[in-house]
Amino acid sequence: xxxxxxxxxxxxxxxxxxxxxxxxxxxxxxxxxxxxxxxxxxxxxxxxxxxxxxxxxxxxxxxxxxxxxxxxxxxxxxxxxxxxxxxxxxxxxxxxxxxxxxxxxxxxxxxxxxxxxxxxxxxxxxxxxxxxxxxxxxxxxxxxxxxxxxxxxxxxxxxxxxxxxxxxxxxxxxxxxxxxxxxx
Length: 184
Prior knowledge:
With 184 residues, the protein is of the alpha+beta class. 23% of the residues lie in helices and 31% in strands. The chain has one domain: Aminopeptidase, CATH 3.40.630.30.
């Protein structure tokens, strides 16, 4: 495990780098969900700018030895019961050359500890490698076998994993996820 893994809250100045990494992410994902590029040769991510204007969205970059290797996009969503909020792992990406080294698991753990709370991680059922990754990472973080709930969205089967990262604090210096600002 590397101690040089950095989780960086992406500022608007990081938007071009994050946009470029999103292109690679969408390209990888297009094996599961076919998608064409636009006339500009890019897939595009229409909601990217919202990560700097909507306080319910949190963009993060991941670096190892000061080199970008991935990103995480988090969204805060209201609990259906009206009892607080859930943090959603909206997008999670590690460059191929950095995979299978434990860095993705370390990155997920840093995000969960940086933003303590109730979390959901949604994975397409046919995304077998992502399912294995999340089952392993969540089990390692919680020390318990994972449980998921199957649901359908637009005719596609998904699995939802849930955890509460407030139950798994570590003794290292803890960072906190910025609180949501009232909309106005």
